[in-house]
Each structure stands twice: as C-alpha cells, then as structure tokens.
Design a protein that fits this description.
binds calcium ion, about 40% helix, GP_PDE_dom, single chain, nine-stranded mixed sheet, alpha/beta, 13 helices, glycerol metabolism, PLC-like_Pdiesterase_TIM-brl
Length: about 375
C-alpha cells in the first residue's frame, strides 16, 4: 500500500513538474512573441512611399497594410481649422504658387496659416518637390508621379472620421499618432494649435492613456504646457512622445523671459538628467535614426549603437525613431531590412516610423 501511495505521489509530482515546465515554456514563448508584437510600425505620413504623403488615399493604403498606427502632422489654417500636412508651408506639396502667386511671405514661402480652409481645399496636392532653376523636381524620383491624378488636403476631423469609419467597417482598432507642427510658430501667430488638437481628440473620444493615440511634438516647452496645463484643465491624459531634433535644424524656438525667441537646445535633453526630465512629461521618445545608431562609426556588418535607447528605457519611455525609407538608406546598410534590424533589434527600439509600412510589417513578421 505504501508503495502504491509512493508511486502515486511520484506521478503527481511528475505531472506538476511537467505542467510547470509547460507553463514556463508557454510563458517564454509568450515573452518571445510579445517581444516581436510589441514592436510597432507607424505609417509615416501614411504609406507615403507609394502615394502622396498624408492624403487619405495614402492612409487607406497603410491601413490595409495592417499598421497599428497612422501618423498625422497638423498645421492651422487662417480660419482655425487643423490641416493634415507635414510642413506649415503649402509650397512643397501643392500648386499654391500658381494659384495664389501674390500670397507668399517675404521669405518666399506660402504659409498654411495665411490661407482659409476653402482656399486650401482648392489646391491640388502632389508628391513633394523642390524648385530648381525654375523647374519642379520631384524629391523622391521613384515615388508616385508628381502632378498625376488628383489629390486634396483634408482636416484632422475628416481624417479621424475616415479612420474611425474604417475601424467600424473592418472591426480593427487602428490608432492615431498625432504631431502638432511648430506650436511655437502658431503661438507667435496668436494660435494655440495644441489646445485645438486636444479639443478635436476629446470630441472624438480620445481622452485617456488607453485611448489609441500618441500625441507627439518637437516643442518641449509646449509639451510641458500640454501635460501640466491643457490636459489637466481638459481632464485628459493621453500618451505623449517627445520628438528629438538636431540643434542645427532650428526645429523649435523657445520664448525667453524678455519675450525674445531663441532656438531650443535639444542637446541638453539627450543627457541622463535631460532624459529624466523628459520622462516627467512623456511616455515615449522619438529620435532620428542617427540618434540611435552612430552613423559615423557604423560600417556594413558592424552597427554601432548610441546610448539613446538605454537612456530612454531607463526612464520607462518607449522609443519610436524616424524615418526608414527604402529609397534613402544610410551607407552602413545594403537594404531596408538591415535598417529595420539595426533600429528594432540591435539598437532595441520599440517601433519605428517608415514610409514603407508593408515592408516594416513583413520584416517584423519574419523576424526570428
Ligand atoms: Ca511627423
């Protein structure tokens, strides 16, 4: 009898041990798959490698490719509508110079903020170009042919309704990744673009960290204002991302105590103390590719990473670098997959922005 009990005990022990092992294996497998599924692909200005950036057509294509997030860049019109456009100028991507030749400012640029929504909607939108010797030259020659077919600009509300409509018809829950362009500039012009953006997000039901949206900005003083003032006043608590620029780009200006505006110093944020400060206001960090991979030291087959991702992770922030373009690769990779590998798995970023979302999604799916 004792022997039988002993045997039974052994069987129970064995089952328990085996069960535990299976659970552990399952847990490990889950960890592994989470590791991959946590890496996210953000459609940079939509599927902008295939269709003109930020058009609803480009968003629809990226949506169908299966991205979890579509990016919106926002600028404000003269009559206070939020326009989905990358620059706060109209001249790189529309025929504004032909339609409204006398509306440029002294610097020769046509500002979104000087035009009404009706005027903006009258423009034809196209693949980005630069004027050289009086001729328009397409910036990415192998992309959608400049000036072909017909594309129009649209408002932030129209894009949210478009994405929420698709979410309804497909049963998916694709998110927004919103950037307010140059809040400092809008402030100089008497407009509060961040407040307007939050009002629209709230109207469409995006109010908490569980809402499927990231709010991103290059303007650190404005991010502090968004977190400490606007979101408090409006009873909102969205996920936020601080975007990092090189100082040489003059991406953001900061108002001084004497009222003057000076270029914002991003370098001070890329230190352990700076990153801890950013983490008080941001859930994530958006560096350029060059900030997570040392482009000077990296060679083919020998990627040298920076300490950016570690610093951000040490401060519990996710890292989503910008931008991977198949047709604009750095010299240390042979193809786009090597760049996805370097950013996501060697530098350890949590996701990335790419103009070719299908290639990014395919890369993650196939990554072992
Ligand atoms: Ca952007």
């Amino acid at each position: 009898m004792k022997k039988i009990l002993y045997l039974l005990l052994l069987v129970v022990l064995f089952i328990n041990l085996y069960g535990c092992k299976s659970n552990m294996e399952a847990a490990n497998n889950t960890d592994m798959s989470n590791k991959n599924s946590e890496k996210i692909i953000i459609a940079h200005r939509g599927a902008s490698g295939y269709l003109p950036e930020h058009t609803l057509e480009s968003k629809a294509l990226a949506y169908q490719m299966g991205v979890p997030y579509l990016e919106q860049d926002l600028a404000m019109s003269k009559d206070n509508h939020l326009i989905v456009i990358h620059d706060h100028y109209l001249d790189r991507v529309t025929d504004v110079a032909e339609k409204f030749p006398d509306r440029a400012r002294k610097d020769g640029r046509y500002y979104v903020i000087d035009f009404t929504l009706d005027e903006i909607k009258s423009l034809n939108f196209m693949e980005g170009f630069t004027v050289k010797d009086g001729k328009k030259v397409q910036d990415y020659p192998n992309r959608f042919p400049m000036g072909k077919s017909t594309f129009k600009l649209h408002t932030f509300e129209e894009e949210i309704e478009f994405i929420q409509g698709l979410n309804k018809t497909t049963g998916k829950n694709v998110g927004l990744y919103v950037e307010t362009k140059a809040p400092w500039f809008h402030k100089q012009e008497g407009k509060d673009i961040s407040k307007a953006t939050l009002e629209v997000l709230k109207k469409y039901g995006y109010t908490t960290k569980d809402s499927n949206v990231y709010f991103q900005t290059f303007d650190f003083p404005d991010l502090v204002y968004v977190r400490e003032k606007l979101m408090v006043d409006m009873d909102m608590d969205l996920k936020t991302v601080m975007l990092f620029a090189e100082n040489s780009w003059n991406e953001t200006y900061e108002q001084q105590d004497d009222g003057s505006w000076r270029p914002f110093d991003f370098d001070k944020l890329r230190t352990p103390e700076g990153m801890a400060l950013v983490a008080k206001f941001a859930d994530g960090a958006g560096p350029s590719n060059d900030m997570v991979i040392n482009g000077k030291l990296s060679k083919k087959g020998n990627i040298v990473i920076t300490d950016f991702v570690k610093l951000a992770h040490d401060n519990n922030m996710v890292v989503h670098p910008y931008t991977v373009r198949k047709d604009k690769l750095p010299p240390y990779v042979d193809n786009v997959n090597e760049l996805y590998e370097a950013i996501l798995y060697q530098a350890g970023a949590d996701g990335l922005f790419t103009d070719f979302p299908d290639l990014g999604l395919e890369f993650i799916k196939n990554h072992k």
